[in-house]
Amino acid sequence: MSVCLAVDIGGTKIAAALVDCETNHIIERCQIATPQSQQPAILSAALASLLRPFINQANFVAIASTGIIDNGILTALNPDNLGGLNKFELVDQIQHITQLPTYAMNDAQAAAWYEYISLTPNNNINNMLFITVSTGIGGGLVLNQQLQTGARGISGHIGHTVVNANGPMCGCGRQGCIEKVASGTAIGEIGSLLFDCLYSGQEVYQLALKGNSDALNIIHSSAAAVAELIANLTITLDLDSVVIGGSVGLAPNYCHYIQQYLNEKPALYRPHIILAQSGADAGLLGAASWFAQQQSH
Ligand code: BMX
Ligand code: ZN
């Protein structure tokens, strides 16, 4: 039996799991909060203590990480999300810790792959986009049934397309990115400004669910922006399906709001909208199955 030590590095948490590559099932799982420090050494130390207990049971390591992964090197496109890591030697560091063959890809690309392989037996999907609305907004594209990782690892970074050219400055250096106006972090920031008190995205969402109309407007603006993005990408790439995930994407009613905004558009702009099936484990399972498959080729 081949066992993968899968690692998912996000802006808020880092998860590790042993995955049985034949069945794609998680054998054991553990997670910690992502260190908020800007120091690469602190991230390395956190990864070492998280991974050590699993090393002896694994044959290889597959990482899904927030940020751009180019040849095993991690760079935060939006440094606000991951302690400003620039050219962090992710694969080398983890290989050093585990002494196992190690591979890495972007977290949303990994999740896209897992959602895709979970769906394809039942659906005729050619061109699919996975969107995660969470700490940031990430994406993964499957075109002609092939996952697009990009020559420089950038493919799918839809969070940094512009929805409002006069909008606020995003951490990536571009003004008005959708991530800055519609992600969980943005929902918290907009709510904090409006209510003049520090709120997380989750707290603003809870207020909306309790019927606070200002909070509900913030959630609606986010869903409307995501619907515009979906329409733009559908007419650009001929998408047939869009899978919505992430903590905001999977929150009550959010996907329904996206669908409502899309329903106002002509049919060509409306792909099939699907809720992500694998929840918080899509990154772990996607990286495990993507690299298990790459190894066998
Ligand atoms: C950001 C970017 C993407 C990532 C997306 C979702 C960084 C550090 N990350 O757009 O690479 O896929 O956030 O990340 O620049 P998550 O942490 O919200 O899952
Ligand atoms: Zn940006």
Key descriptive features of the protein:
single chain, 297 residues, alpha/beta, Nucleotidyltransferase, domain 5, 2 domains, five-stranded mixed β-sheet, 9 helices, 37% helix, globular, binds 2-acetamido-2-deoxy-6-O-phosphono-alpha-D-mannopyranose, binds zinc ion
Short description:
The protein is of the alpha/beta class and 297 residues long. The chain is 37% helix and 22% strand.
Into how many domains do the coordinates divide? Answer: 2
Work out the number of β strands. 12
CATH superfamily of the largest domain: ATPase, nucleotide binding domain
**Biggest β-sheet strands, sense, barrel:** 5 strands, mixed
Overall mean pLDDT: 94
Percent range for helical residues? 25-40%
Contiguous runs where pLDDT drops below 50 for at least 5 residues: none
User: Per DSSP, what share of the residues sits in E-state strands of 2 or more residues?
Assistant: 15-25%
Distance between the termini: 17 Å
Pairing-aware structural class of the strands and helices?
alpha/beta
CATH topology of the largest domain: Nucleotidyltransferase, domain 5
- For this structure, what is the CATH class of the largest domain? Alpha Beta
**SSE pattern, N- to C-terminal:** EEEHEEEHEHEEEHHHHEHEH
From the spread of the alpha carbons, the general shape counts as globular
Chemical compounds bound to the protein:
2-acetamido-2-deoxy-6-O-phosphono-alpha-D-mannopyranose, zinc ion
The order of strands across the largest sheet is: 3-2-1-4-7
**Rg, Cα atoms, Å:** 19 Å
CATH architecture level-2 label of the largest domain: 2-Layer Sandwich
**Number of helices in the DSSP assignment:** 9
